[in-house]
UniProtKB/TrEMBL annotation:
GO biological process, one term: homophilic cell adhesion via plasma membrane adhesion molecules
Signal peptide stretch: none
Principal location class: membrane
GO cellular component, one term: plasma membrane
Organism, scientific name: Furnarius figulus
Record-given protein name: PCDB8 protein
Length: 762
C-alpha cells in the first residue's frame, strides 16, 4: 500500500552548493545521510532524481546515496547575472511514496576576465574644457558575479586625466574620466593612455583598452539634453524595429558646431544586440524582440556630440513589461498508477509541478480537475501540487479513473494546459503537528510578576478530530543543564506561555528551551520547536563608585599650587550592573568649595582644574561628584573627594597630618588648654610685679627711718678710692660698727630695677 500524508510533503528544501564547471562525477552531497536512510533502504525504495528543468545536470547513485555532477555546469550560461544560481530537483522514494525537494547552488569561479568591447576608445575634448570636467567611458564586460565581477578601473600615468569607478542601479560599475588640468591643443593635440578594468577574483583578472583623447579647438557651447533620464516602458511582445524612445538635445552654437549626432555608449553587449539609435533624429529602436523572462530592465547611455566635438550624456531606462505569452506547464514528478480502494481520504495519488515563465498575474497559476471525481488537488508549496483522494473509494463501483488536471494562469487572456493521469484501483493517516515557526522568540522585561504572558505557541495538524487536537508542553531540561523550564509554564490547550516567577536581567539575560506539540491520536505523534526568551533590562541598579572607595574620603588628593588649567587631579571610576542605555554613566560636579576651580569630564570621570591654582585658593577643597545613568527614571550615586592644595612635600605632610575634618575636636581642646595656661601665666607675672613694687616701697621707707636716727658720716668716712667704679661695693668708715655697716646701692637702667647687696666694709 503506497500512502503519503500531505503534511509530510511540506519538508524543508535541502540545500547544497558546488562550484561551477566541476568535472563530471564530482561529489556534491550524500542524499541518504540527509534523509536518514541507509544505502540499502535507498536502493530498496527505488530512489530517483527528478530535475526541475528539461536537462539533468545531477545524478543520484542508488547504491551509495551520493549526489554527483552528471554534466558540467556553467553558471553564466545557466543564470547569467542572476544570483543565486540554483539547480532544483526532487528525490522520489517508493514504499511509501515520498518526495524531497532539493537545490544546488552554483558558486561562481573567476573564469572570465573583464573585456572592453572596443579596444580603442576615441574621446574628443575641446581645449576649453575646464578642470574637473567629467567624461563617461565605455564599460568593460565581466559575466562573473560577486567579488569575481568587475570591481574597479585604473588608467596609466598621465598628467591630464584621472578615472573614477561609479556604480549603476543594477550594481554594474562603469568608468568616469575626470580632467585634472586644462588642455592646450597647440602644446599637445592628442593624449593617449590605457585604461584597465580589474575584477575581484583570486588571482584577479583584468582587461585593457587604449584611450585616445583628441584635443579640439574652441567650441563655446556643449549639447544639452531635454532630460537627463528617460524612463520608458516597453511590452515584451514588441516587434523588431519598434521605436522605444526619442531623445533630444540642443546646441546653442551655429553651423557645424551646432550639429548634433547621437550615439549609444555601449556599456554592455546585451544593449548592443538589442538597441540601435538614429544618429540624426535620436530615435532608439529595437534590434530584436524583448523577453521579460530573460531581462527585465535595460540601462542605455546615450551621447550627443556636436560638430566641434563637445558631447553630453543622458540615461535611458527601459522597463520591459510582461505579457502573457507563456502557457503553464504541468510536469508529473510522481504517479501511483495502482491504488488500494481502502485508501483513506487525502491519500496521495500523484505529485506534479506547474511552471509558468511569466510573472505577476501572468505567472500566477491555479489548478483544477475536470469532471466529478473522488480526487482533489492540494497545494504543497509554490508551484508544487499533490493529487489526493477526497473521499472513500470503491473498486466494485469504479475500477479505473482518467483524471485530467488543468493548469490556468491569471493573465489576460488566460492561458492553460492540461495533463491526463490514469489511476487503477487495486482493492489508512499519520500527520504530526507542525509548529508555525521552528524557533519562537519572546521578549519580557525583568521584574515582571509571575503569571505574565510572553506570547503564544501555535502548531497545526493536518489530521482531523482527536488526531488534530494539539497539546503543548515544555520539555524537561537535560541533567547538568540550567533549569530553564522552571522559569516558564505553557497552557496545554492554548499554548500561552507565562512566567512562573520574576526574572532578573542581571542573572538571566536569555535562555532557550524545547517545547513539544503532541496530537491526541493513538499512538500520539509530536514535534518540537525551540523557544528563545530574551529578558529586557530595566534600570533597577544604581551606579556603584569603585574609585575612590567610599571610606577613603578623609585621605584626599594632593594638588600642587603650581597646577595649571586642565591638570588631572583624580579619576572617578564607576560601574552599573544594568546594560545598554541604563548602564551609560555621566559624571557631574554637584558641590565644590570653589565651584570655578575644578571640573569633571562628563563621560570620563576625570577631575581636572578648570583654571590655574592661585595663592588665594583655600588650601582645603571638598568636591561632591554625582554619577548618573541614563535609564528611565535615572539612578545616581555620589562620592566626596577631599583635596589639599600644597607647595611641597613638607606642606603636604602638614596638610595630611592636620586634617581639620579628622582632628577638629582635639584641636579645640588644645586651644582651650592653651588659653588656660596663658591666663595663669599672666596672673603669676602680675602678682610678682605687685610684690616687687611693695618690696621696693617698703625698703625705701625703712632706709629713710634709719637715716633719721643715725648721725651724718664724717668726711673721712669716704675716700675716692673707697668706691668701686662699677658700684659693687663702697669703702669708707663711719660711726656704725664694722659688723653692722652696709652700703646699699640702687641701680636703674633700661627699664629694669634690682637690689644689689654689697659686702660689709671691713
Amino acid at each position: 500500500i503506497l500512502l503519503l500524508c500531505i503534511s509530510g510533503m511540506k519538508a524543508e528544501t535541502a540545500r547544497y552548493s558546488v562550484p561551477e564547471e566541476e568535472e563530471k562525477g564530482s561529489f556534491v552531497a550524500n542524499i541518504a545521510q540527509d534523509l536518514g536512510l541507509t544505502a540499502e533502504e535507498l536502493s530498496a525504495r527505488q530512489a530517483r532524481l527528478v530535475p526541475d528543468g528539461e536537462k539533468q545536470y545531477l545524478h543520484l547513485n542508488q547504491h551509495t546515496g551520493d549526489l554527483v555532477v552528471r554534466e558540467q555546469m556553467d553558471r553564466e550560461e545557466l543564470c547569467g547575472q542572476t544570483e543565486p544560481c540554483l539547480v532544483r530537483f526532487e528525490v522520489l522514494l517508493e514504499s511509501p511514496l515520498q518526495s524531497f525537494r532539493g537545490e544546488v547552488r552554483l558558486t561562481d569561479i573567476n573564469d572570465h576576465a573583464p573585456v572592453f568591447l572596443n579596444k580603442e576608445i576615441v574621446l574628443k575634448v575641446p581645449e576649453s574644457a575646464m578642470p574637473e570636467t567629467r567624461f563617461l567611458l565605455e564599460s568593460a564586460q565581466d559575466p562573473d558575479v560577486g567579488n569575481n565581477s568587475l570591481q574597479h578601473y585604473s588608467i596609466s600615468s598621465n598628467e591630464y586625466f584621472r578615472v573614477y569607478t561609479r556604480r549603476r542601479n543594477d550594481g554594474r560599475r562603469y568608468p568616469e574620466l575626470v580632467l585634472n588640468r586644462a588642455l592646450d591643443r597647440e602644446q599637445q593635440a592628442e593624449v593617449a593612455f590605457s585604461i584597465t578594468a580589474v575584477d575581484g577574483g583570486t588571482p584577479p583578472r583584468s582587461g585593457t583598452a587604449l584611450i585616445r583623447v583628441i584635443v579640439l579647438d574652441m567650441n563655446d557651447n556643449i549639447p544639452v539634453f531635454t532630460r537627463s533620464l528617460y524612463k520608458v516602458p516597453v511590452m515584451e511582445n514588441s516587434s523588431q524595429d519598434t521605436i522605444v524612445v526619442v531623445v533630444s538635445a540642443s546646441d546653442l552654437d551655429s553651423g557645424t558646431n551646432g550639429e548634433i549626432a547621437y550615439s549609444i555608449v555601449q556599456n554592455s553587449e546585451e544593449n548592443f544586440k538589442t538597441f540601435k539609435i538614429n544618429t540624426e533624429t535620436g530615435q532608439i529602436r529595437l534590434k530584436k524582440t524583448l523577453d521579460y523572462e530573460e531581462t527585465k530592465t535595460y540601462e542605455i547611455d546615450v551621447q550627443a556630440t556636436d560638430g566641434g566635438g563637445l558631447s553630453a550624456h543622458c540615461k535611458v531606462e527601459v522597463q520591459v513589461e510582461d505579457v502573457n505569452d507563456n502557457a503553464p506547464e504541468v510536469i508529473i514528478t510522481s504517479l501511483t498508477s495502482t491504488l488500494s480502494e481502502a485508501a483513506p481520504p487525502n491519500t496521495v495519488v500523484a505529485l506534479f509541478n506547474v511552471r509558468d515563465r511569466d510573472s505577476g498575474d501572468n505567472g500566477r497559476t491555479t489548478c483544477e480537475l475536470l469532471g466529478e471525481q473522488p480526487f482533489s488537488i492540494s497545494l504543497l508549496a509554490a508551484g508544487a501540487y499533490a493529487l489526493v483522494t477526497s473521499e472513500s473509494l470503491d473498486r466494485e463501483q469504479v475500477a479505473e479513473y482518467n483524471v485530467t488536471v488543468r493548469a490556468r494562469d491569471e493573465g489576460s487572456p488566460a492561458l492553460s494546459s492540461s495533463k491526463t493521469l490514469f489511476v487503477r484501483l487495486l482493492d489508512v493517516n499519520d500527520n504530526a503537528p507542525t509548529f508555525t515557526q521552528d524557533i519562537y522568540t519572546m521578549v519580557i522585561s525583568e521584574n515582571e510578576p509571575a503569571g505574565t504572558s510572553l506570547g503564544r505557541l501555535s502548531a497545526t495538524d493536518a489530521d482531523e478530530g482527536e488526531n488534530a487536537r494539539v497539546r503543548y508542553a515544555i520539555e524537561a531540561s537535560p541533567p547538568g543543564t540550567s533549569a530553564a523550564a522552571s522559569f516558564l509554564s505553557v497552557d496545554a490547550d492554548k499554548g500561552t506561555v507565562r512566567t512562573l516567577r520574576p526574572l532578573d536581567y542581571e542573572k538571566v539575560r536569555a535562555f532557550e528551551l524545547a517545547v513539544r506539540a503532541s496530537d491526541s491520536g493513538s499512538p500520539a505523534l509530536s514535534t518540537q520547536a525551540v523557544l528563545c526568551v530574551l529578558v529586557q533590562d530595566k534600570n533597577d541598579n544604581a551606579p556603584v563608585v569603585l574609585h575612590p572607595p567610599a571610606d577613603s574620603s578623609a585621605a584626599g588628593e594632593l594638588v600642587p599650587r603650581w597646577a595649571q588649567s586642565d591638570y588631572l587631579v583624580a579619576k572617578v571610576v564607576a560601574v552599573d550592573a544594568d546594560a545598554g542605555q541604563n548602564a551609560w554613566l555621566s559624571y557631574e560636579l554637584a558641590k565644590a568649595t570653589e565651584p570655578g576651580l575644578f571640573r569633571v569630564g562628563l563621560h570620563s570621570g576625570e577631575v581636572r582644574t578648570a583654571r590655574a591654582v592661585t595663592e588665594r585658593d583655600a588650601p582645603r577643597q571638598r568636591l561632591v561628584l554625582l554619577v548618573r545613568d541614563r535609564g528611565q527614571p535615572p539612578r545616581s550615586a555620589t562620592v566626596t573627594l577631599a583635596l589639599a592644595l600644597v607647595q611641597d612635600f613638607s606642606d603636604a605632610f602638614l596638610q595630611l597630618g592636620h586634617d581639620p575634618a579628622s582632628r577638629q575636636q582635639p584641636q579645640e581642646a588644645e586651644e582651650d588648654m592653651l588659653t588656660t595656661y596663658l591666663i595663669a601665666s599672666l596672673g603669676c607675672v602680675s602678682s610678682l610685679f605687685l610684690l616687687s613694687v611693695l618690696t621696693l616701697a617698703a625698703a625705701k621707707l625703712c632706709k629713710a627711718r634709719l637715716r633719721a636716727h643715725l648721725s651724718p658720716p664724717s668726711p673721712s668716712c669716704y675716700t675716692d678710692g673707697d668706691f668701686v667704679s662699677d658700684g659693687v661695693d663702697v669703702a669708707g668708715m663711719g660711726t656704725l660698727s664694722p659688723a653692722y655697716r652696709y652700703e646699699v646701692c640702687l641701680t636703674t637702667g633700661s627699664g629694669r630695677s634690682e637690689f644689689q647687696f654689697l659686702r660689709p666694709v671691713l
